[in-house]
Design a protein that fits this description.
- The protein has 354 residues and is an alpha/beta fold.
- The protein has 13 helices and 8 strands.
- Helix 5 runs antiparallel to helix 6 and helix 12 crosses helix 13.
- The chain is globular.
- The two termini are 32 Å apart.
- The structure holds nicotinamide-adenine-dinucleotide (NAD).
- The site of nicotinamide-adenine-dinucleotide has 29 residues, from helix 4, strand 6, helix 5 and helix 9.
Length: 354
């Protein structure tokens, strides 16, 4: 076995069904009594449920969390924080709400309890991406990591089947890139494989029956493990491409990850045979070929396969290729302008990865 360094990110995780009821106990364990609740405008009823569970003992609710964590929204929320004298943050929602919780916590030092309702995985990473004047900047700092994560499968039952599918593939993408990360290690490989195994079985079951609590529970468990991979291993081409495409062409986060993943994996495949084998071993029907397994999974999920389906124009392919290769970053295969352009063109057109 090769030498390696494994650095765990210390978060406390409460997992299960009905676990949201543990929130008052968790706050009192921490000596906190006046949290500001955070959510999106679409999830105010879940925030209202939290307020009831806390017997109304909250500083208030800020319900304008927005995708890609715009700094203007964070500043608005900071004003609310100050005026209410909140002593902690409780974020309930997907990656967008978690992002706001992280942005507030790093600015104020307040304890952040995160209650995720998608499979994005941000709740277990020390990473924060913020947008200002149309530019998304990402930073990593141990202080960004939420202190407590409460996974309650009951809260994910309302996640529409289509978003469950793409959000789950977003999670799988974290594990895929962890399997060939420069700073990868055997512990992360175990988590990555188990995360993909759980999601690859659960997602088609959710699409077939969105009310299946067992499938939802497995998906949430898988998403947690994949999130740990994202927080521990360096990401490469796939995440950089999605970041560029999402930020520059305003494409939806989870859907973009879903379209790009097989193409980015096919690009890197010749340089990462070990990762391809580990992935093929946990993707049903792959027959030893991870790309085949991934394509099969996406077909079963019935997800959209082309970036053009989300409004990207063919004329943007050149600009996307330029941006994706303009900054050097670690990737198992050298970034070659021509093949990267062809990768993006195939993803744009919705062709199968080769
Ligand atoms: P999201 O948080 O934007 O949620 C998408 C929509 O679904 C929102 O309207 C939300 O209110 C709704 N929703 C969420 N959960 C629901 C539920 N259970 N039932 C019904 N509706 C629900 O989407 P996301 O994909 O979770 O997060 C995307 C954002 O997270 C992006 O900004 C991305 O950059 C960021 N992200 C960051 C990290 C990190 O480590 N920093 C990791 C992954 C994603």
């Amino acid at each position: 076995m090769e030498n390696f360094i494994y650095q765990a990110n210390p978060s406390r995780v409460i997992f299960g069904s009905g676990t949201i009821q543990k929130l008052p106990e968790e706050l009192s364990r921490l000596g906190l009594s006046k949290p500001l609740l955070l959510c999106t405008p679409q999830q105010t009823s879940q925030a209202a449920d939290l307020e009831k569970i806390l017997g109304g003992k909250v500083a208030g609710t800020f319900s304008r969390a927005t995708m890609h964590t715009p700094v203007e929204v964070t500043e608005e929320a900071l004003e609310v924080l100050k005026s209410t004298g909140a002593d902690s943050l409780v974020a309930i929602g997907g990656g967008s709400t978690t992002g706001l919780g992280k942005a507030l916590s790093i600015r104020t030092g307040l304890y952040h309890i995160c209650i995720p309702t998608t499979y994005a995985g941000s709740e277990v990473t020390p990473i924060l991406g913020e947008t200002q004047a149309g530019l998304k900047k990402t930073r990593s700092d141990p202080k960004i990591l939420p202190g407590t994560v409460i996974y309650d499968v009951d809260l994910t039952m309302t996640l529409p089947a289509s978003l469950s599918a793409t959000s789950g593939v977003n999670a799988i993408a974290h594990s895929v890139e962890a399997l060939y990360a420069q700073n990868g290690n055997p512990i992360i490989n175990l988590l990555a494989q188990e995360g993909v195994r759980a999601l690859a079985a659960a997602l088609p079951a959710i699409v077939a029956d969105p009310s299946s609590r067992e499938a939802r529970s497995s998906a949430l468990y898988g998403a947690w493990l994949c999130g740990i991979c994202l927080g521990n291993a360096g990401m490469s081409l796939h995440h950089k491409l999605c970041h560029t495409l999402g930020g520059t062409f305003d494409l939806p986060h989870a859907e973009t990850h879903t379209v790009v993943l097989p193409h980015a994996l096919a690009y890197n495949a010749p340089k990462v045979p070990r990762a391809m084998k580990m992935l093929a071993d946990v993707l049903p029907g792959s027959d030893g070929d991870a790309i085949r397994g991934l394509n099969l999974l996406l077909d079963k999920l019935g997800v959209k396969r082309g970036l053009k389906d989300f409004g990207m124009k063919e004329a943007d392919v050149d600009r996307a290729a330029e941006l994706a290769t303009s900054n050097a970053y670690p990737n198992p295969r050298e970034l070659e302008q021509g093949p990267i352009r062809e990768l993006i063109r195939r993803a744009w057109a919705g062709e199968h990865a080769k």
